[in-house]
Amino acid sequence: MTSALIELREHLLATPLPAIALTLAAYLAGMRLFQRLGRPSWCPPVLIGALLTASALWLLAIDYVDYRRGAGWLMLLLGPATVALGVPLYQQLPHIRALWRPILISLPPAALLAALYAVALAWAMGASHEVMASLAPKSVTAPIAIGITEQLGGSIPLMMGGLLITGVMATICVDLLARRFKIDDPRVLGFALGVNGHAIGTVRAFELGPAAGAFASLGMSLTGILSALLLPLAWRWFGL
Q: Nearest to residue 156, comparing CAs of 182, 138, 178, 179?
């Protein structure tokens, strides 16, 4: 890269516009490729967009810290987007009321296992405290997971990577297990996708229908609230 191009790149990176434009372009390209591939559950557009963004950062030699500083403006929209999921929840309120008992019984062990197995595997493999703290909130939606990771002393970039992998793997596993055990109730599928796959699972659930999407929103929201309340306490309790 010539000195003129480097100077131009540094000048552009002084504003958030290049990071925002790169992020939106990667996502739109991911959506287009996702449509062309026939909308496969194993390759959601957010995964394609993330790979395209990482490739662009590597090719243009842009430091991740500089990119994240600019793209931080988009992160501000995650909170309102999460709150907006209350609309489908309200629309499906009668179905949710009818199932409040199994939801309350199944949620705590599901959320606990989602955090526990990742931390246990990392601990067994000799991972550092920072790595374990980054993996603990991997099944929680990003706006809440960022706050939890900061409290536990983890790494935000590592947590975001774990979040992406978890969402994709949860989508694949829920689809496979649903076919294997012949589960076709959209409420069950949606709740499982929301608890284990956060926003990526919720997007997949909305593709299955409004009921699945609403229950995925519910599972994602409750998992986030429960994890935000209990994970920091459990972390201090075990002296991690």
A: 138
Task: Read off φ and ψ for residue 16, nearest 5 degrees.
Answer: -80, -10
For residue 88, give Cα distances in angstroms to 136, 201, 218: 28, 15, 9
* Dmax (CA) of the chain: 65
| pTM of this structure | 0.75
Q: Which residue has the tokens 């229950």?
A: 215
Residues 6+ apart with CB under 8 A from 146: 75, 156, 159
For the chain, which residues score pLDDT lower than 70?
A: 1-14, 239-240
Q: Taking the CB of residue 155, how many other CB atoms lie within 10 A of it?
A: 17
The residue written with tokens 């689809």 in the block is 175
Q: In whole angstroms, what is the distance from residue 232 CA to residue 15 CA?
A: 35
